[in-house]
């Protein structure tokens, strides 16, 4: 499998490129609007053809590039089936693999950050979206979030994967790029060790985090598979404008 990790600095989002060497087909996981040209260039530079984009959930902190990539490259849009978005080409459900050439991707329903959140298992790695971060996890205080559901998703599902499985999250804010299931089970300060569900719920209920500054634009835009509002305030335009820099993993 061809693999590349790309980083979008405005929302600190990782996008993942997976490609099949035999067929030349490729998929982008969680592509971000300001970086779509960079990501498509990465696909083309590797001699691949983008056939699918996958969003792990309806994001609150950035606009997906799914629609613009479909327009520019003809890729299909895979979205969690329970969201029932009209713009979905491939309804993603647990137990039904997504196939991109010889690359098999197994969707895993991991609710808690949002009610319809999915992680993606591909070979020896898992793309955990916002459910499980490196030494952390996604918030549970908006978009039908549920701390108990997230606890069950991470400890009951993700932590049941082999310990050597590589963990690739949707975000990191401290320059980290990869972890493992064994590492997160042992030392994740929110969900690892012997943390009980009651302790986790209390912790998540008292994070005191500010209201996400882009959520009121991101969620409706992402329910249309990536549409930037025309009335976006000046201080938020960087979320939809082309990236000035393109650091890559």
Automatic annotation (TrEMBL):
Keyword set includes Hydrolase: yes
Keyword presence, Metal-binding: yes
Gene Ontology biological process: glutathione metabolic process; hydrogen sulfide metabolic process
Highest taxon in the source lineage: Bacteria
UniProt keywords, alphabetically: Hydrolase, Metal-binding
UniProt-listed InterPro entries: Metallo-B-lactamas (IPR001279), Mito_Persulfide_Diox (IPR051682), POD-like_MBL-fold (IPR044528), RibonucZ/Hydroxyglut_hydro (IPR036866)
Domain (Metallo-beta-lactamase): residue spans on this chain: 12-171
Any GO MF annotation of the entry: metal ion binding
One Pfam family here: Lactamase_B
Protein name listed in UniProt: Zn-dependent hydrolase
Organism annotation: Lysobacter defluvii IMMIB APB-9 = DSM 18482
